[in-house]
Automatic annotation (TrEMBL):
<keyword id="KW-0547">Nucleotide-binding</keyword>
<dbReference type="GO" id="GO:0000287">
    <property type="term" value="F:magnesium ion binding"/>
</dbReference>
<dbReference type="Pfam" id="PF01409">
    <property type="entry name" value="tRNA-synt_2d"/>
</dbReference>
<keyword id="KW-0067">ATP-binding</keyword>
<dbReference type="GO" id="GO:0006432">
    <property type="term" value="P:phenylalanyl-tRNA aminoacylation"/>
</dbReference>
<feature type="binding site">
    <location>
        <position position="260"/>
    </location>
    <ligand>
        <name>Mg(2+)</name>
    </ligand>
</feature>
<dbReference type="InterPro" id="IPR002319">
    <property type="entry name" value="Phenylalanyl-tRNA_Synthase"/>
</dbReference>
<keyword id="KW-0479">Metal-binding</keyword>
<dbReference type="InterPro" id="IPR045864">
    <property type="entry name" value="aa-tRNA-synth_II/BPL/LPL"/>
</dbReference>
<comment type="similarity">
    <text>Belongs to the class-II aminoacyl-tRNA synthetase family. Phe-tRNA synthetase alpha subunit type 1 subfamily.</text>
</comment>
<keyword id="KW-0436">Ligase</keyword>
<dbReference type="GO" id="GO:0005524">
    <property type="term" value="F:ATP binding"/>
</dbReference>
<dbReference type="Pfam" id="PF02912">
    <property type="entry name" value="Phe_tRNA-synt_N"/>
</dbReference>
<keyword id="KW-0460">Magnesium</keyword>
<keyword id="KW-0648">Protein biosynthesis</keyword>
<dbReference type="InterPro" id="IPR022911">
    <property type="entry name" value="Phe_tRNA_ligase_alpha1_bac"/>
</dbReference>
<protein>
    <recommendedName>
        <fullName>Phenylalanine--tRNA ligase alpha subunit</fullName>
        <ecNumber>6.1.1.20</ecNumber>
    </recommendedName>
</protein>
Length: 360
């Protein structure tokens, strides 16, 4: 007869040694299955005397229970181990750097960023965006804006002219965004509140001038708008754009053919180690030109100057970008150097809004 104690030792050792659930099942079948060693032992009870059956039966059943418990306990351990192994194999390493898609690697040029910022700020004040063509007529670029024929102010614009057309008139690359004022007044009845961002061209090139550059024009026309409104709009704009609580402005009398009175606006700043900060300091920096729209311009655009009035302003966008984001050489804006753009550009999904923050 098989020694029960020996069988117990063997069976429990085999259960403990089962490395996985399949091996454990094989051990279970080998001991407790129909033809298993413990079942075979149980089958011997029938041939025993009633006394032996009593004592042996109790021992064999105790062994059976023990083996069943050991199998169940081992199964629990193996299942827990298998789960642990799976979890650690399937772990996602959240510290891995994110692989950026090609789309996210691209950068928004600082000029586009500043245009988006301007648009967000002025849209909040009720302005819409107006546009005009880069190739403009002499009439819209100069004459309607009250630059008389032969006036020296025309010469100051270093204009790129096209050869004369069949009508003998020369088209030109617009030298400022002011002709969009003309187009707006000719096509839209007051009240008018627009900004006109866009490309402008002059035959000029050095560290702070490029033949193509960017301006934004502002125009407000209605029956009551006055210079106080102009000052408020500019102050709100400058505060929002430079993201400061207050700005000090200085209006210097100036001359533009299309405004009367005309002014140039300086903003107080502090220059330190080549850095410029707004909203503090004792220095002044010229930022823009502005004024009340000249009655001749209103008349040239079909508006009655006795009924309508308003203001206009013009700002260099490139200069605004340089001042806000600390870029010193304007020419780099147009060199399409991917390294420069990676450094100074903006992430495409960080669109500037007043609510979410302009510059992120
Ligand atoms: N057009 C001017 C320039 O390019 C800028 C300017 C000044 C625009 C005063 C305006 C203004 O609308 O009122 O130099």
């Amino acid at each position: 007869m098989t020694d029960i104690a020996e069988l117990e030792t063997e069976t429990l050792a085999a259960i403990a040694a089962a490395a996985d659930e399949a091996a454990l099942e094989a051990v279970r079948v080998g001991a407790l299955g129909k033809k298993g060693s413990i079942s075979a032992l149980l089958a011997t009870l029938g041939k025993m005397s009633p006394e032996d059956r009593k004592t042996e039966g109790a021992k064999i059943n105790a062994l059976k229970d023990k083996a069943q418990e050991a199998v169940a306990a081992r199964r629990d351990v193996l299942q827990a181990e298998a789960l642990e192994k799976r979890l650690s194999a399937e772990t996602v390493d959240v510290t891995l750097p994110v692989q950026e898609s090609g789309q996210e690697l691209g950068r928004i040029h600082p000029i586009s960023q500043v245009m988006d910022e301007l648009t967000a700020i002025f849209a909040d004040m009720g302005f819409s965006v107006a546009e005009g063509p880069d190739i403009e007529s002499d009439d819209y670029n100069f004459t309607k804006l009250n630059f008389p024929e032969g006036h020296p102010a025309r010469e100051m614009h270093d204009t790129f002219f096209f050869p004369p057309g069949a009508d003998g008139k020369r088209k030109l690359l617009r030298t400022h965004t002011s002709p969009v004022q003309v187009r707006t007044m000719l096509s839209k009845a007051p009240p008018i509140r627009v900004i006109c961002p866009g490309r402008t061209y002059r035959c000029d090139s050095d560290q702070t001038h490029t033949p193509m550059f960017h301006q934004v024009e502002g125009l407000v026309i209605d029956e009551t708008t006055h210079m106080g409104h102009l000052k408020w709009v500019l102050e709100e704009f400058l505060k929002a754009f430079f993201e400061v609580k207050s700005v000090k402005m200085r209006f210097r009398p100036s001359f533009f053919p299309f405004t009367e009175p005309s002014a140039e606006v300086d903003v107080q700043c502090r220059r330190k180690d080549g850095d410029i900060r707004f909203g503090e300091g004792e220095d002044w920096m010229e930022i823009l030109g502005c004024g009340m729209v000249h009655p001749n311009v209103l008349r040239n655009c079909g508006l009655d100057p006795d009924k309508y009035q308003g203001f206009a302003f013009g700002v260099g966008i490139d200069r605004l970008a340089m001042l806000k984001y600390g870029m010193s050489d304007l020419r780099a804006f147009f060199e399409a150097d991917a390294r420069w753009l990676t450094h100074y550009g903006f992430r495409p999904l960080d669109f500037p809004t007043l609510a979410g923050g302009l510059s992120g």
